[in-house]
Amino acid sequence: MDLTQGSEEKKHGRAKKMMLWFGIISMVMTFAGLTSAYVVSKNRPDWLTDFELPISFLWSTLVIVGSSLTLILSKRMIKAGNRRNASAFLIGTLILAILFVVFQFYSFSEIIQNGYYFTGSESSITTSFIYVLVLAHLAHLAIGIIVLLVLIYNHFKQRYKAGQMLGFELGATFWHFVDLLWLYLIFFLYFFR
């Protein structure tokens, strides 16, 4: 038995986890900067104080929280050796992710129907910030959906099992981060108007 190979795998695993956390920290800093600019801009005289977020943002919040729960359940099923249920929960996570995107674009259409635009004479600094925050999150969510597709592909190739979960754990960590990021944004937008 080659002990150096086991320690090499652990080193690679730690390096992959560290790179993921560096990426997450940079994303946190990006959104911290955007939300800080939002707070500073609230003092502008052209800031909208009566702007209401669409209720569909709340529905999308429930959906994305549900997607984290189904991903947690899929991990448990993989570790338990229950591939069928793991598959169902993974596909359920993907469906919920797509439903989240649908709700986001429905929310944008509601904002536009209410006469608020991203740019142009009908836009405001308030709505521009909301569009930027949500679209930046959707860009990260698009990466998250790609991650989910990779997880599903690798699951069907039987690459995950108890004791061999690094790739799944990395993907799940990113997905849960994207979910938590949305929770931060939605609470921020509701409470810092």
TrEMBL record:
InterPro entries with a match to the protein in the record: Cyt_c/ubiquinol_Oxase_su3, Cyt_c_oxidase-like_su3, Cyt_c_oxidase_su3-like_sf, Cyt_c_oxidase_su3_a-hlx
Q: Which SUPFAM superfamilies match?
A: Cytochrome c oxidase subunit III-like
Residue ranges annotated as transmembrane are 20-41, 53-74, 86-108, 128-153, 174-192
- Provide the membrane topology annotation: Multi-pass membrane protein
The Heme-copper oxidase subunit III family profile domain, residue ranges: 1-193
Q: What is its main location?
A: membrane
**Claim: Transmembrane is one of the keywords in the record:** yes
Keywords, in A-Z order = Cell membrane, Membrane, Transmembrane, Transmembrane helix
Localization, UniProt: Cell membrane
Family from the record: Belongs to the cytochrome c oxidase subunit 3 family.
Query: What protein name does the entry list?
Result: Cytochrome c oxidase subunit 3
